[in-house]
Amino acid sequence: MAAQCCSDTRFHHVHGTNVRIDPSRTQATRVESFANGLCFSQEPLEPGQIFLVEIEEKELGWCGHLRIGLTAHDPQSLEVVPEYSLPDLVNLGDTWVFAITRNHNRIALDREEARVRAPVQGFLSEPYLLIEQVRIPRDKLVGRSRPGCYSHILDDLYKMNVLPPTARRSRIGVLYTPQPNGTADMHIVINGEDMGPSARGLPTTRPLYAVVDIFASTKSVRVIQVEYGCSSLLADPLPAGHPEARCPSPGHRWPGPATTAEEFLQI
Question: Which uninterrupted H or E stretch holds 211?
Fold first, then answer.
């Protein structure tokens, strides 16, 4: 079943008291202190849809970094936006958030999963990041020293992927992938690399919103829009002559992530 195109991602108008959102709702800045920097996606994410942000500004003197995850709480339903994602928002239940560190947290994989997910040398040479059935263009997932169209082709920062997770221009995203048992796995992507499942057993019967906590030394982030390109979720190569095997004409957008867990699992 063909999936619908995803709309552009934005920040929700509900956010922490120390956050200022720009008019486009794509830039969020913590204007004082080190806390009350919680932000949410404007809409719940679709299965396989990544909410991707780039760290635009840092602030020295604080201990701690960006935090990111998912919540099943509609931001509109919160009487008060919690001061912290960890532990305040998580303590409300149905919320999964991790602090981004140089050694990121992830679920321990069994031997077979570790073999399948083992990093490939020169992984940035692959045009897509594959996460289960999800196929995401890698171009937008990795920061670059000279932002601009096609600048990554000659950009050593992009090609070498040398950015630490918490550095300025580092790009961090979150998404979820439905599983056959009716739940979902949450994945965090750091500079084009899937960190593996960070949480499992998420409910797919409730909308899941992205959570971005602009905490401590992270001061400002910007949403990076991801266009999924040709047959983004079809991880298996398409046969020659298939109508979606063609590159899209200018202005055409191929379907992005599936709109429901059922559609996702049918791909």
Answer: strand 209-213
